[in-house]
Automatic annotation (TrEMBL):
InterPro entries: HAMP_dom, HATPase_C_sf, HATPase_dom, His_kinase_dom, HisK_dim/P_dom, HisK_dim/P_sf, Sig_transdc_His_kin-like_C. It comes from Lactobacillus intestinalis DSM 6629. Residues 186-238 form the HAMP domain. It comes from the Bacteria. This is histidine kinase. Residues 219-253 form a coiled coil. It is an enzyme of class 2 (transferase). The lineage of its organism: Bacteria, Bacillati, Bacillota, Bacilli, Lactobacillales. SMART domains: HAMP (SM00304), HATPase_c (SM00387), HisKA (SM00388). PANTHER family: OSMOSENSING HISTIDINE PROTEIN KINASE SLN1 (PTHR43047:SF72), TWO-COMPONENT HISTIDINE PROTEIN KINASE (PTHR43047).
Amino acid sequence: MLGFLLIIVTTVSIIGYAEIDYVSNQAYNQNYQRMESYAETLGELASSQSQNGTAELSTDFLNKLQFVLRGDDVHFRIFNAKNEQIYPATRNRIQLSDRVLSTLKRGEQIRIRNNNLQRSYIGRTKDAYTGVLVPWMNGTKMIGVIWIGSLVKNVEKPIYMAKRNLLNALMVTIIVGLILSFILSYYSTTKIKSLSRATKKVAAGDFNVQIKNKGNDEIDQLAENFNRMVRTLKKSDEEIKAQEKRRDQFMADAAHEMRTPLTTINGILEGLQYDAIPEDSKPKSIALMRHETTRLIRLVNENLDYEKIRNNQIMLLKTKFDAVKVLKDVQTQLRQNAQKANDELVLDVPATLPTYADRDRFTQIIVNLVQNAIQFTHDGRITISGKRIDHGTEFQIKDNGIGMNKEQTKYIFERFFKADPSRARLGTGESGLGLAIVSSLVKQHGGKVKVESEEGKGSIFTVILYDKGFEQFVNKKDD
């Protein structure tokens, strides 16, 4: 409010000062011109009646003229060529200084703003006068000098009026400025306080805050940016909570997965220690311990493998090979798992399928995707297909299992995420890392991976691996 008021008062003061200066100069200039006009008229009359190079005006005429001009508070004095005051008559000898007289003899006029304040050429008077000293010339010869002036107070009347008007205007401006400043300040501070309250709520963890704004000024733009920021923070907070939830679920699952084989191994070891296991059952028990140990190693290896992949700590040895042989090996390797779920594992590929990738990591990608399909498909059909596309090779793993909704497909490639934890079976990707590993490996290859799914109808995972020299080009174009 003080800022607005200061600007208004400063502006009015500058304008007022300029106006008073202008009015003052105008008032004095007009008075000078009027006095000079009187002096020149009298000078012409004196010049026409001059004798022996001296101005001659009758005293009676001058008295009458002084009487007439007295109504305007105009007074004059006349000096002859000898620098003697000849009107009005005085006993005291009043003369002009030699410097002033020299200036006047050159035909130059002298303006006196206030004879009681500045250096006086005619002496000080009871009332301050402003006027002019004008030489009367006859050709190049000075025949007399007249000083004619009027009261300063009369000349400054319009100046006093301008000052009074300015003071009134300044008072009105201050009052109006206070009112306007208060309104504008209240309008602005209300918005700022609203922003402050909203900021405190966000700091307290409330991301549902939105500030109403009309977008008319900078504060409204700030409010809109604040709203956009809060929406982003809310989205990030929801994502963090979802990640935390998946992490907690993973920790619970991992603990469960590790506890089960450890309990089994511990029980068998105790049985062996105390000869509680019959001799004919020992080979079976040892085989069970080995199976459970393998599960633990696989769980640990998956986590270590994912961290290496995510941090770009693996070296890809990319070569060009025929993917058909790899896909057939995967089909053979996982057929038994598919049969356990009563699934049919089908391969639909051309005779040859040139692919540019790290062969071992490519095998890992396909195995993880097929295992994921087996995990969520029962009494169904899983199809592994592949084909060439422009500058690359496309692979699809299609199943008719339980499928996923849109929310699940959104996070399916995230670490620890399980589309349906209740349906997960031991030994087939129960760690929740398989698809995360797939996504990271495909990205490192410079390729793409996506999923299309519908609940109750199954899912289609598509992987595209580009030929040599096209990986970065495609990625930049997609970005």
